[in-house]
Amino acid sequence: MPPIHQQILLIGAGELGSAFLPHLSTLPNTHITVGVRSVAKYTHLTNPNVSLLSLDITGPSQELAQTFAKYDILISATGFGQDAGAVTKLAKEALEAGKLRKEAGTSKLWFFPWQWGVDYDVTGDGQGLMPLFGEQVGVRELLRAEAKESHVKWTIVSTGIFMSFLFEQLWGIVDRDGDKITVRALRDWNHRVTVTDVNDIGNVLARIVTGDAEADDRVVYCAGDTVSYAQLADIIQRVKKQDVKREQWSVQHLESELAKDPSDTLKKYRLVFAKDGVYWEKESTVNHKLNISLIDVGTYARKILAG
Questions:
Q1: Which domains are present in the chain?
Q2: Domain NmrA-like, which positions (predicted)?
């Protein structure tokens, strides 16, 4: 067996972390450690290339920085269900881990923060609607300002919305009621959204880690598809071989709905997604430049809606 020369710490084994693992674990001369709170819950993930580490990211920062410093690559897949300040705390711990690696004379720590979503540089905090989005902007600014001095290189992968969520009944964009389907447009029918399947995100991530893409100290993009809401309705109509009802939720309508229930997080998300920063051209993506084939909306729709 060839010697291991790259140690990766993957934080989290939820939907995204579990999708990353099969791709990362096939990288040559690489060992993956999955940091989770409950090791007993994830023993099924282990194999010769994958081990588990009991890890509480709410713990003391100095201890976590010392742990992170043992690894060459740190990938956060912790998800959105975190307390305020959690992503900033983790970024600061990664920066401290880089300093520890510098003192030890080892290579830079490569940090992939939890930014697997929209382009936060454009969305900002959604005009105060999404404090977590604002915090994500702060993480970007922190890394841009301090990473090099801290012996850290970083890569942010903007993925758009997860493909599965686009079709979630809860999201309300593709609304299935028995045989009847309503497709709703956020803002207008020409407004667009970028979506990527989580498994494909793992594929793109693994190619980035191998060094196939220019990704050091920058934001890169991937996209399974970028579609307008009109195109989405047309796709579903073709897949289902039936007419679909089309309903437009304008920005004014979304603002009115949120005003009725200002604490409704889902309504805040819909309003933010009716604005800019939630889509980009596929030609600008890592997967396009590397000719990586990703699942598109039509293929995904056929998989879950056909029949």
A1: 6-157 (3.40.50.720), 162-194+225-280+291-305 (3.90.25)
A2: 6-268
